[in-house]
Amino acid sequence: MIPGPHRMKGGAPLLGARPGQVGPFGPYGAEMRDAADVEIELLTVPACPNRQLAAERLRQALGEAGLNTTLFTTRAIADQAEAEQTGFTGSPTILIDGRDPFAEPDAAPSLSCRIYRTPDGPAGAPGLDQLRQALRTAAGTDTGL
């Protein structure tokens, strides 16, 4: 059974549409989400030197991605056991809907500082464009333009 009703981008109900069908705005089932549905968490180690930078960029990216009403929580990862339990691979880590959009393959859980690959070179937090893209993708507002 398909949960419904499905909606097209723009919010108009689309009766009888099934995920995977293609309509005038792209595939059904890939509709925009309510911003309140996106869960964001900023994970850091205590006294992380890049916590403030990551939080500022995240706030700015949320606003610029049209998700200004979306809030995020901040949580300190206290020990290696918690790092392993959460898949925390360094501070700061941003989880969007429980997923790290910047995860590096084979990165081991660690209480260390994290370095991000950005267009401007290595940095202590993801770049603003990278964050906007990850947020739009998660919210279903990424048009590919």
- Series of secondary-structure elements, N-terminal to C-terminal: EEEEEHEHEEEH
Q: Give the total of beta strands.
A: 9
The rounded distance between the terminal residues' Cα atoms is 33 Å
- Using the alpha-carbon principal axes, give the shape: globular
In terms of quaternary structure, what is this? single chain
Quote the beta fraction: 15-25%
The main pleated sheet reads as: 3 strands, mixed
Helix content: 10-25%
Residue-averaged pLDDT: 79
Whole-angstrom Rg: 17 Å
Physical arrangement of strands within the biggest beta sheet: 6-5-7
Structural class, by secondary structure, is: alpha+beta
pLDDT < 50 stretches = 1-33
Summed up, the helix count is 3
Description:
Helices cover 23% and strands 19% of the residues. It has a three-stranded mixed beta sheet with strand order 6-5-7, with helices on one face. α1 packs across α3 (128-139). It is globular and about 35 Å long. The protein is an alpha+beta fold and 145 residues long. It has helices at residues 51-64, 80-86, 128-139; strands at 6-7, 13-14, 22-23, 26-27, 40-44, 72-76, 93-96, 116-118, 121-123. It contains three helices and nine strands, in the order βββββαβαβββα.
Task: Write a compact overview of the structure shown.
This protein is α+β, with helices and mostly antiparallel strands and 145 residues long. Helices cover 23% and strands 19% of the residues.
Architecture blueprint of SSEs:
Layout: E1 6-7, E2 13-14, E3 22-23, E4 26-27, E5 40-44, H1 51-64, E6 72-76, H2 80-86, E7 93-96, E8 116-118, E9 121-123, H3 128-139
Parallel strand pairs: 5-6
Antiparallel strand pairs: 1-2, 3-4, 5-7, 8-9
